[in-house]
């Protein structure tokens, strides 16, 4: 086995790749620093590739090291998933479904899915994690999530994406905004207002869609604040820091001094999509996807 890569090599490599410091990595692994250095050197000799650049001041990854770090991270994530699945099978359960989501997915889509899973597959355990669009894509790609609910126009070709919910948009105004709902004629009436939006980095598709709604009304919105949380956006609107446009479903569950005007007569819609890996290995995912989209 002396000329083959073993799991311990990958463990040692990942510790050094994460810390970029041999002493700290050795302490983390509870081994000696010289011993760790020997293991890394042996690994580089077996692979015939240099993984780290070393000098007296710092340790850094070579291009090969960067590539290997990404692959080893995926391997360990997958091993962790397999371990959890085996424990669940051993306990007499069918398995686990790890779900990532945006806050708006909790208004309708996810609760309905979880109720269906509980009814049809009562032994399936599920875990939920609220993450940004990009974080969900990364987690699904690297096997930390089985599925995610996102607002994106496209994803890497190793993932599948299906629209699961189309919603209208609604204008969010302070409760005492100097215009009553029946006086609403169109978005052009708000060209002089400041807008509060979800961050472009959080959801580029949402951001671009809001821009197009305003541009269709003949103006470019003045953006005063950005956030990644609907509660924060509504709080800012409530305190007259600006107005907002959000998916209509988000108006449920918030008790604030704001009012909503549904924008029914515009072509733009807020699309929520589910993403999952084409080549997934979780048998639970297939059954749950059938409940969600019939596939």
Automatic annotation (TrEMBL):
Q: Ranges for the HTH lysR-type domain?
A: 5-62
UniProt keyword terms in alphabetical order: DNA-binding, Transcription, Transcription regulation
The source's superkingdom equals Bacteria
List, alphabetically, the InterPro entries matched: LysR_HTH_N, LysR_subst-bd, WH-like_DNA-bd_sf, WH_DNA-bd_sf
One family name in Pfam for this protein = LysR_substrate
Against Gene3D superfamilies, the record matches this protein to: Periplasmic binding protein-like II, Winged helix-like DNA-binding domain superfamily/Winged helix DNA-binding domain
Which PANTHER family is this protein grouped with?
HCA OPERON TRANSCRIPTIONAL ACTIVATOR HCAR, TRANSCRIPTIONAL DUAL REGULATOR HCAR-RELATED
Entry's family note: Belongs to the LysR transcriptional regulatory family.
Name this polypeptide is given: Transcriptional regulator, LysR family
Recorded source organism is: Maribacter sedimenticola
